Amino acid sequence: MTAVRALLADGRVALVRRLTPADTEAVRLLHQELPERDTYLRFFTIRPPRLGAFAEHLTAEDARHATLGAYVDGVLTGVATYEVVADPEEAEVALAVDHRQQAHGVGTLLLEHLGSLARARGVRRFVADVLAENAGMLRVFHDFGLPCRVESSGPEIHLVLPLDPDDCYLDTVTDREVRADVASLTRLLRPRSVAVVGAGRAAGTVGHAILQRLIEAGFTGQLAAVNPHAAEIAGIRCYGSLLELPAVPDLVMVAVPAAAVPSVLGDCAARRVPAVVVITSGITGDEKLHGEVLKAVRGGGFRMVGPNCLGVVNTDPRIRLDASFSDRPSRAGDIGVVTQSGGAGIALADQLSAAGLGVSTMVSTGDKYDVSGNDMLRWWECDEATRVAVLYLESFGNPRKFSRLARRLARHKPVVALRTGTSEVARRAAASHTAASATPAVTRDALYRQAGVIAVDTLTELTATVAVLSKQSVPRGLRTMVLTNAGGGGVLAADACAVAGLHLQPPSSTLRAILGHSLPATASLGNPIDTTAAVPAATFARCLRAAMDDVEVDAVVVITVPTALGDPSADIAQAVAKARAGGRETPVVAVDLTQRENLRLLGDTVPSFAEPAVAVSALAHAAHYGQWLRRSPGRVPALPDIDVTAARALVDSFLTEHSDGWLPAPEVTKLLRCFGIPVLDIIPAIDEDDAVAAFRTLGGPVALKAVAQGLLHKSAGGGVALDIADEPSLRVQARLMRDRFGADLLGYLVQPMASPGRELLVGVVGDASFGPLVVFGLGGTDTDVIDKRVTCLVPVTDTDSHDLLQSFPAPKALAGIDVGAVRDTVLRVGRLAELLPEVVEMDLNPLIAYETGCVVADARILLRPVARTDAALRALRA
């Protein structure tokens, strides 16, 4: 493994790496300096072994053992080692941590990384003998997150720790990661002191603007400036360098020329500054500077935002941190924002402010060498000041970790993302139909959908959605009532509801009775409810409260225009407040057809829009998010009849002989059966006589398929003959294929004919970052109808497989078939893709579904060696 930066429980950065002979002396010193009691607990004696030889053994290169070390501020603080003794799937594990660094999570962090390394080498369980009085080590094992077993007790306890991660383990690791990340970001977002390096004396420079904004925002901590050519700037004392500051600042803002950034970061490391924001651009495109800055981050022990960023903001009145150079101060509010684009951050903050909304925290990650969107998802999970999270992400460093973090946060707070890159129309050049579906936008949207992230396409749509989520409750369902005093506006809203998937249903009898008593005979009591333009504002408000009181109404869209009798919009906020006081939380969005602003707040609570379509779209996002909240999170089910060992051996055997390639058809069948996927028998034949022999084995009718060089899509290439009922016909078709393909013909495949049924496609396409994507759609002659496909990232849960088929855009194609059998096949394909990442493309086409059961009639699998990564492992970006 390569060295990685990771966080300890107190937020400090540790460097975790394999130890080598160069670390022998550091290992010896660590063990030598253990207190007597720690020595006894580690070695079961107060007299340790010969530490020189012991350290040499730990750091020696050996396939049967591995040792990891954790360095903090350049000092070795912990060592974890495993050693295989007899059974290659079992290893003895031991830990030693500097007594001054205990209780900070060093041992747990090392054990996580050691377990990941051991799994990659085929070790399936750790064992350890621990003294019963060693409460600290017992707690490390029992709190680790995996089901630790005690197999003997007494003065020495024998522990067995299986290494196969499950959801419980992943949740436990994420819990630790959240706590550590929040601790590490506290100095960044809640600093007690800030130093601006590169603060110019004159206005017009970025450094000067940042210092001025900090002053104007009323930062509650200590401020300092670093400028060797000034004694003070804007009343703030200046120092010649960071090294001259009398106290170490919590946060350093860096706004110096690009060439000077590595030197400043070196000073930050020397002073052990905990948090840095590098505003400077021009680093990432310069290979030398890029390398120097990355090296400084990796060895500096600090968290860093940037480079090439706008800055950071925390509007908490106890902090009042605005360390940015945006065009105006950020308005305080409950919306957390993380953006890769500084320009997008400025535009979004301005739009929110214009609508009466504000931010709790905003971080512009820029080129995100370290702090990323994943860090902010962890921060907001624990930040009571943030109600809604907003993301503008142009790339994902660890999409699988993002999915888990976003899913956790979205269970408590809405997460809204502005989509980028959707306009990309070029599809990946690939031989399989499945890969042709998997554009980056499709994969990203699957990630958002499964994680409960609300994806929008424009800043206007984002601001509107955030306003609804910030100021209104999440709808209980999709049943929407449109109330208007302008019939035309109601029609526009009704059309928008139909497009957005909101349900308009007639008012209940109770609501109709209330409305009939209040409204003139000319009013329309359907849905939309048209009160007519003649009703006064008070009557309109009573109708609104009645709609909110109705248990069959999940949300209300109010469309108004002012008339000579009054402006109904004037009483909307008061009507909603009265309903809230009575315990009704039904969300309400308003539309004022004469409103000049795109969005404003009525009474600081009800979002009011200028366009019905915008209001309805925002409400629909909230309603569909509510649906996601109500669905079961799901689990990856335990599927019977799966032989991972045999499947792994088959894949490894093929890749040992080939660098990559399409798996031969007989091996495809074997691999699918390893995962319990129903597939037709197949018999390979090298020539015509072999094909006849296969026919006699299978009986008729059969399908004959050519195996030819470069022939992947056999039907389209003329390499398939169906319904062959006798031997003479088989010989005729075999000869036709021989004539067609000539020297490229390698042989034949003979299969029994499958009964006619609904032809579907289930496929997989791998992605090095996002992981495998499962694709489901129409198969056979309808394969190329790409808009009739749905996708899902692995791991595929039971809920995911249900949603996949429920959201299928051609539901009539699934009528009359065994949906349960198809769903089971999707789950098994997802499990195959999850456990065998070397399957980079797979087509099951067609998967023929019947009233009872389903079967794969043809399949292709492309194998390629991949670098195995542990997406759950705690590690920082740089």
UniProtKB/TrEMBL annotation:
Native source organism of the sequence? Kutzneria kofuensis
Protein name per its UniProtKB record? Acyl-CoA synthetase (NDP forming)/GNAT superfamily N-acetyltransferase
Domain ATP-grasp, first and last residues per copy: 669-720
What keywords is this UniProt entry annotated with?
ATP-binding, Nucleotide-binding, Transferase
Q: Which PANTHER family match?
A: COA BINDING DOMAIN CONTAINING PROTEIN (PTHR42793), PEPTIDYL-LYSINE N-ACETYLTRANSFERASE PATZ (PTHR42793:SF1)
Q: Which CDD domains does UniProt cross-reference here?
A: NAT_SF (cd04301)
Question: InterPro entries per the record?
Answer: Acyl_CoA_acyltransferase (IPR016181), ATP-grasp (IPR011761), ATP_grasp_subdomain_1 (IPR013815), CoA-bd (IPR003781), GNAT_dom (IPR000182), Ligase_CoA_dom (IPR043938), NAD(P)-bd_dom_sf (IPR036291), Succ_CoA_lig_flav_dom (IPR032875)
Q: Which GO terms describe its molecular function?
A: acetate-CoA ligase (ADP-forming) activity; acyltransferase activity, transferring groups other than amino-acyl groups; ATP binding; metal ion binding
| Coiled-coil zones | none
SUPFAM superfamilies, per the entry: Acyl-CoA N-acyltransferases (Nat) (SSF55729), Glutathione synthetase ATP-binding domain-like (SSF56059), NAD(P)-binding Rossmann-fold domains (SSF51735), Succinyl-CoA synthetase domains (SSF52210)
Q: Does the keyword section mention Cell division?
A: no
Q: Name one Pfam family in it.
A: Acetyltransf_1
Q: Which residues form the N-acetyltransferase domain?
A: 14-164
